[in-house]
Amino acid sequence: MLSPKSAETVRATLPAVSGAIGEITTLFYEKLFTSHPELLRHLFNRGNQANGSQQQALAGAVAAFARHLLEHPDSRPDAMLTRIAHKHASLGVRPDQYPVVREHLFAAIAEVLGDAVTDEVAAAWDEVYWLMAHALIAIEKRLLAEAGVPEGEVWRPYRVAARIEETDDVATFLLRPADGAPLPPSRPGQYVSVQVQLPDGARQIRQYSLSGQPDGGLQISVKRVSADGRPGAPSDDPAGEVSGYLHAHVHGGETLRVSPPFGEVVLCDDGEGPLLFASAGIGCTPMVAMLSHLAATGSRRRVIAAHADRSPATHPFRTDLHRLTGKLADATAELWYEEGVRPEEGLRHELPDGAGEAEPQAGADAVDAVTVRTGLMDLTQIAVPAGTTAYLCGPVPFMKAVRAQLLASGVPASRIHYEVFGPDLGL
Q1: Which residues belong to the active site?
Q2: Does the global pTM surpass 0.85?
Q3: Are 239 and 225 in contact (CB under 8 A)?
């Protein structure tokens, strides 16, 4: 891995680089986009650039990689690298773009740290950068080969065959290959990138979990996001410009540019142990795909599907959740609604056919295999079986809280998997 001389230099300079890396990455992106404005318009997420989260993610990745090389010189952080590589592959990142990043990153380092960046320091950090870059390039090449995609040609036209309104702010789009060729392989829990051309000409990209895979198509479900990150009307702010475009302009018959499915947080079929799916808001989409797969294969595993939302009216796939848990031999659903269940909503949608209606009561209501509670998700209120493998998806603060609850319940960190859309700032 790192040469002994470079390891010594990196160890000595890591505190200074880490302390300034936020400033370094901010300046790096300024330099990069000044020299290559097309990257901001057509590759990088303008919303993440506007709120600074992309800068934080890059800073964390570089520092974490360097620290791992020092603490574990005979290995590399494959979990982190694989997560990044899946994102890069789905975006169509090319090997020839890594030297461009290196050029502007090191110009920013030199400008921020000044005379501290001697030739020896520059050489040591150059070694760190290319160890990380070459590892990513190799993984991305393998992922593209497995997807049957030539390097740099990830985009494929898909026709929007149908649109389904799940809630006031969530729409499902059924996509079929416009070229009539077979679908690419996918696994429950994976996502695709969708590229749309916005009114200003920018081709922006966002990633959406597969919420199902009907015959001959892919299915994504998109939540409309406003400027403040909450559901609402389409916004001109970069935070919600792609979801707003899809909601306002895509109704059926249009063609979208879509990547093959990628993502390393996938359902493992090679075990019989208990499973727990914990989601909030639109984070339920990969969980629905996993539940659909388990139901289709007749799984007999113990399954707990836990979901948190503002109210039953804002909960996407609420009826699907009951239908799928009802098909499984040993599955229950645990629901938390911040606003509770209003009398006019009842639990009609959670009831199986012929079960009649149920009026909400104080505390927890158990109807068949569904329990509804008021408030924020609290997994300490349920019994988590020994040997559980957990999958999390939702806002980062939600996943941090749920992960802490699972750790406190005895679930080891190695059995807790999570998916983050946008820059991964870690849990």
Answers
A1: 98, 140
A2: yes
A3: yes
